[in-house]
Fold each of these.
Amino acid sequence: MASAQATQQLPARKWWHSATVYQVYPASFKDSDADGVGDLKGIISKINYIASLGVDAVWLSPVFLSPRVDQGYDISHYCAIDPMFGTMEDVETLIARLKEHSIRLLMDLVVNHTSSQHPWFLESRASRDNPKRDWYIARPPTILLDDDGQAVGIGPPNNWESQFKGSTWQYDDLPGAYYYHTFNHHQPDLNWDNPEVRAAIYDMMRFWLNKGIGGFRLDVINMISKADGFPDAEVVNPLLPYANATHLYSNGPRVHQYLQEMNREVLSHYSDVMTVGETPNTEEIAEVRKHVEPGRKELNMALHFDLMGYDHGDADGVSGKFYAGNRGLRDLTRRIVKWQMALLFSTDAWPTFFLETHDTARSVSRFGDNMSKNRFKVAKMLALLQMTIQGTVFIHQGQEIGMANLAHDIPIEKYNDIETVAFLQEIRAKREAEALAEGRSEIYMDDIVGQVRLKARDHGRMPMPWDSSERHAGFSEADDDTPLWTNMNSDAQACNVRQQEEDPHSVLNYWRHMLRFRKKYPKILVFGDFVPVLVDDSPIFAYLRQSLPGDHGNLLVVLNMTAEERVHFRLPQVLRNNGQMVDVEFAQVHSSWRDDFDHRAEGSKWWSGDTMLLTEYEAVVLAYS
Ligand code: TEU
């Protein structure tokens, strides 16, 4: 038992530590006006459903005015609502109605870049001496020389590859210079080194905070400062036109200075708001800690992608999500352990945990297997995993019913996400060129198509199946002449909300149960330390959650992360007493899917002596003192 002094040194416990955040992707949640696109009134009509889950906050993906080149992550007005989603009044109603259920609304703050249609950008490119010229990043071209040193043309200022393929630079005729874009060329990056830009962003943040929102999810916030001088990135494969520059445009020299300024100027004036920064390309623990250590006064927490990269791979000197990684679940669990140990509450840091967002595939398909009989078992096993992990937990709409990836009857040509389309185009062009050079007419794409079916962002963006009705599974009343904005999955009969409401053993009711379970033991599940027990060389992933000095109670979590039907697990020493289990504090074992949720520990069929037996995708949590 540690002293009270040790406990006092820990950071204050805030509402967002114990929060579970539910991500709503507005275009695909619920369509109230039959135009094939979800909207704010649709979300409002489902508030009782959201509240019934037991979540504490909703993260709303962007609903602002946008040409939707990147589905709203290209904003042309930060304080105007896109009419396809509704009105400002609808947002205010949403904030108020959620508050009635003690749920806070987190807005998506996309300020690394704007849309190319944002008035700031239109002004900035109007002429070279426009006062807004320096609000974005413009650079003169590189002059291309032939062997004799004669100018033969122009090229981009450096060799950086964009996140959505091609160069990060777009030539703009009017001002005769290139402008910089980390993502698509319709998403020019703002110049955060310009204090006027930062002041304008801070004003906009105050506008939203004054409306009573609960905080922000900050899109790619670690990309706001780029390497000074935009040096060329290291060339790994000289045959490729551009090089990976993620480490030159992520976590640049002034990112922390600007985040501290944002905190000082804006966030510190609003008590109790929550900030979660999205920080891709940040695999270093020290780097994430810089964003989230409370004493640094930057962000409360970060969504980094190290975990999500566990199955990415390499080919031809390029790495990316659509190359097979084949590292399997062992690598996933190792990465979970790495971050759980690195960002413990007791060491003055704070982790997040998510398995799905609108940028990922569906977890049951990606982390499970292809057998439909196991789909809901996997979903429950992963629910138990998420609900027994330290950190603020994020779940993505549809995850709570075990939505799977788009079925194979939906052709790959119908996938419409900008990242998917750009990637497929690039690989196809490369392979066509190779085939031509070798005199072949056929190209091989099955490997890439398989990866797209496994990992594309399209899977995280399909409409919610509310019921099994023929017409768009209750998502929309759009008629035959009005197509939905994106693909609806073809499995709504097997997986929809209404059906799961009626089934006490459904994934949906399991999530509700687990959310209550987490709320019941926050001192262990939210704030307790994480101690790995078994990570490698076994289908089992096992860990202890131990409450901090001054708190009380401990849990053992054991997950069979495979389809193996008889897996033995020997209880760790802390739970063994002469070959028998020690007293189980809550006298309760809790399985993810076998029979019912709760069982008396004594005489249980789960173990004999000190060995536990788990069947496929089964997860068990038990409490001990
Ligand atoms: O995503 C950040 C990002 O880096 C993505 O490219 C991500 O790595 C990729 O989608 C994973 O497959 C954010 C938003 O969440 C995403 O929807 C936007 O497209 C992107 O920023 C640009 O705003």
Note: The chain has 17 helices and 28 strands.
Amino acid sequence: MQESVEKLLKSLSLEEKCALLSGADAWSTKAPGDIPQINMSDGPHGVRKARVMMDAADPATCFPTLAALACTWDKSRAEDIGRAIGSEAASMDVDVILAPGVNIKRSPLGGRNFEYFSEDPYLAGQMAARYVDGVQSQGVGASVKHFALNSQETRRMSISADVDERALREIYLPAFETVIREASPWTVMCAYNRLNGVFCSENYRLLTQILREEWGFDGLVVSDWGAVVDRVEGVKAGLDLEMPGPADENTLILINAVRDGRLSEKDMDACAGRVVALALKCAGAPEARPPRNHHMTARRCAAEGMVLAKNDGGLLPLIPAQRVALIGPFGMEPVIGGGGSSTVTPTKVDVPLEEMRVYDPPVFYAKGFRTDGTPDDALFNEALATAAKADVVVVMAGLSFEAQTEGADRDNLSLPAVQNRLVDALCDAHKNVVVIVTAGAPVELPWANKPKAILIAYPAGQSMGGAIADVLYGIKEPSGRLAETWPVRLEDTPCHLEFPGGADAVRYGEGVFVGYRWYDGRKLAPLFPFGHGLSYTTFQFTDINSVQNGNDITIDLKVTNTGSRTGRPVVQVYVAPQGTAYVPRPLQELKGFEKLRLSAGETAHMTFSLDARSFSYYDVNKTEWVAEPGTYEVRLGTSSRSFFYKQKFTIPGTVRRQFTVHSPLSDLLPTQVGDKLRMMLGEAGVDISIPIVASTPLRALPMFSNGRMKPADCDEIIRLANSG
Ligand code: BGC
């Protein structure tokens, strides 16, 4: 391949090579001479093959949003969806799908959160890697986006995300790192925004040092559509392809920059070579198979991503003999996705009411409220009257399509007042109310303690209506778990005071304490915690065994479905540092998860492997991941707040702490030199029980001991503390 790339490059003039660094139109690359054209289309929720930028696209299966997919906590489902999208892309002559988006949900207000997986980088990275595997198994490339820190829509094309190095490495980059290392995506899309002042589209550190040199990425970097600011700086940084094209002015700028020596031909060739390499890869992909209908694949996944947040008295699943009233316009027109570049033209859309009537023909219906939020007493009264005829009332409340979109963040977490008023009134009037909340991100539920059941359904694609019916009537278990914390109120959220930031920059002041890391540390009770989700059946976790070998720990267990229906248990593994001291750390972090399918009475095994990275933080001085020696609690649970196993392990770690003359006595006394230091201090008449002494650095001891301790004594202590 390298040889053909070089040969083709040699056949091009400087002008042609510069021109190759931008597209031909909205979606494809230029194809000079023998170089094939690359065709790209949006994902991530299906193929959006549009002729011009925001034109209506050709019909394709509209799959669950990544927010819904993440709630399945099922890596094989992520792969299934990726595979289905890849195969539809291939059959539509699309070479690269612009997906998945793996940005971290920093605030629930993020307008594009429905397009992203999680607030947690481990969950996002694992799911995204399998999605990419699925897409690329079909001979279609994936484009992991938006690299990096595109965690808000407000001023997304200019804002600087100002973030500290640990938060960057521990929260915002790992999902990308996992996808690059584990799934080798064909392309990466750089983000619009700046990172600590430098546009991502010309960020050498991000696009070359971290992405290629550290993580070994060997594919193509494409700009987000319109993200290029200074094309020469972009080429120097490693931004290969500018989209959309043609960017004739930038082509001229590049030609001149090479001619007058501001840009080396070598840097330009590197970018052009990667465009040619991708074009050859796309041309070499297997012949497309005829399109298949993936409606049922989407339906299965949609049900498995629905989260049963509450189910008092086992009101769900419904029994067909019950008289059921469905209330809310989303029952007729479900919100299956959000606005912007991920909007797919579905091949068909399941209507929840019709799908419920397949299982239970007499379901009553009332619209109840208007989706634009305008009060309508006639609809309100009709809904109460309809509810009065039923044994169980199912209300579908949530955010409209317009309220969740690329390009704009929300400015509050509320549902429209007309919806809250109706849910309140229905709960006051009826004892059996189920609320289905359909929203691409958390909303405040001020009435959450009133209905017996709450089902959270993120926008789940064209078969969402069928999946809702499956779940309500127990044909399927709603086996989702939340991939993000649902807060009680906006003011509790980690970046509340610093989202969406100022005119030029947004400060990521909460550092690594994003999502549950924040709620845990602040002891804030969320409405529903990260990882939460109930089941229609019950599970038992037994025979938990662990084997430790240095920093490597393996845990296996048996999981039994002790109920009478098929169910899908999810086990989550968290690591909780126990008083480790090098840097402040989250109280616990997700480091593993698995999901099973168990029929009633069935038992199966799960195994989890932890390694040094599972215990590590990013050391900003060493510029590497380090596991501090010490004790860590490993927790196995069914959410971030509910555990069935906690076991402490002491690990050797990967580093030893280094002490200096600036280390206070309180750091040194608990170490191997503690006894010797105590003796020396005693002889020198220094009383370590006085707090002001304990916090003294070694270098000040000669002064505190009236010269009885010498600088050489301090050097000796440091030498001993750092040895062995
Ligand atoms: C979005 C990308 C998308 C691209 C092409 C941009 O506005 O940020 O996610 O792939 O448009 O539609």
Note: The longest strand covers residues 539-549.
